[in-house]
Structure formats: structure tokens, C-alpha cells
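Field log, afternoon session.

UNIT: design team B
ACTIVITY: writing a sequence onto a fixed backbone
BACKBONE:
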């Protein structure tokens, strides 16, 4: 498995290139292309000669999907999202203008939608989609063998905000309880900040105490 993180937006969003291996020609996906300037991401893919087969979005906030159309112009592959986040996705240009004072075009809808428990393949690697609402109604965590991409549900030392429109503190609490059932040695790659493990967060993250 090969994972490379890129900080791609003015508010520090992580975009990931996940590949089955570092072997040239290995299948790979782009996770959360949250800005329209993705050249470092594209350069990395070209350097390793990865075959991009999909774009995965952990949720629909602008800083995690704004570059989706730029990415799929480069790689004509399907884009995946949980359907509950379509209203968030559709509001992204307005929210971006409010937060960053930038005018951006609407982003075309995803091509496919996943549900809780959906299993997806990346070469020989299998991933399971966990629906973890709270930060947004369609937030998901993408869980594989020893690794999870947690989007804005769980960060190192904190969690995603729940004071946005369509956020839910009650649903976030239930989602965090669910994540605490995962293996302690599971490495999490969040939507912002550094990676961590479930066990470390259970011991140190104040939002996972009690």
C-alpha cells in the first residue's frame, strides 16, 4: 500500500493519493481533492505512473471536493460520495465564496453513491465504507486493512465541527462511539492535520473520553 498526503486548500485540507502499491502502473485513487490547484498531486501520480481508477470523497464540504472536476478532466474516472451529502455538495460554491471570497463554478454531481457497509476494491485491497454522520449528514470513513481515512469525523486530538448547517452533535457522538470499536492499532488519516491511531485517540482525545 502507498499513501501520500497533500495539503491542498487555504484551510489546510488533506488530499490523499492511495495506491495498491508503489509499483509503476498500480491502481490508485484520489481522496478528497479539495482545491482546484492539484498540480502537485498530478505530478506525484505521473512520477509513480499510477493508474487512477476513482475519486473518493469523504464528504461534500468545499475544501474536500472543490477540485473534483479538475481531477476528472485529467482522469475520466467515477466520483463517489454518500448521497446524504448532496445538499452540502450543491452549496459548496456559495460556502467557498463566503469563507474564501472566491467565486468558483459548481461541481458536477458524483457518479456513484455508497452506503454504510459498501465494500470497494482497489486492486487486491478491500475497503469498507462506514457512514459516520455528524460533521455532515453524509460523512464517511473509509476503512481498510490497518488504515482508515476519517475525513472530518475524527482528527488527531480533536473532531470535526458540528456547528455547521446540517451538522449534528448527536449523530457525531454516535459516530465517534462507533469508531472507538475499531482496532487500537488502526492508523487514521484525517481530513486535516497529522495521522494518528484509534488507540492513541482513545487515550488522549478529549472528545473520545467517557
Amino acid at each position: 500500500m502507498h499513501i501520500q498526503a497533500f495539503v491542498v486548500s487555504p484551510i489546510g485540507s488533506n488530499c490523499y493519493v492511495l495506491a495498491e502499491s508503489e509499483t509503476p502502473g498500480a491502481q490508485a485513487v484520489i481522496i478528497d481533492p479539495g482545491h482546484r490547484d492539484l498540480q502537485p498531486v498530478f505530478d506525484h501520480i505521473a512520477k509513480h505512473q499510477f493508474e487512477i481508477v476513482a475519486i473518493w470523497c469523504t464528504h461534500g464540504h468545499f475544501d474536500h471536493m472543490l477540485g473534483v472536476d479538475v481531477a476528472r478532466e485529467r482522469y475520466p474516472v467515477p466520483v463517489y460520495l454518500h448521497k446524504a451529502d448532496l445538499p452540502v455538495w450543491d452549496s459548496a460554491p456559495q460556502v467557498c465564496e463566503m469563507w474564501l471570497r472566491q467565486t468558483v463554478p459548481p461541481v458536477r454531481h458524483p457518479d456513484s453513491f455508497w452506503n454504510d457497509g459498501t465494500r470497494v476494491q482497489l486492486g487486491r485491497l478491500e475497503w469498507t465504507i462506514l457512514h459516520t454522520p455528524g460533521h455532515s449528514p453524509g460523512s464517511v470513513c473509509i476503512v481498510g486493512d490497518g488504515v482508515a481515512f476519517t475525513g472530518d469525523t475524527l482528527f488527531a486530538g480533536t473532531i470535526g465541527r458540528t456547528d455547521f448547517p446540517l451538522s449534528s452533535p448527536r449523530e457525531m457522538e454516535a459516530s465517534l462511539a462507533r469508531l472507538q470499536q475499531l482496532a487500537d492499532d488502526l492508523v487514521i488519516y484525517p481530513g486535516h492535520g497529522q495521522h494518528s491511531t484509534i488507540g492513541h485517540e482513545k487515550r488522549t482525545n478529549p472528545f473520545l473520553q467517557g
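LOG NOTE: The chain has one domain: 2-208.
NEXT ACTIVITY: expression trials, pending approval
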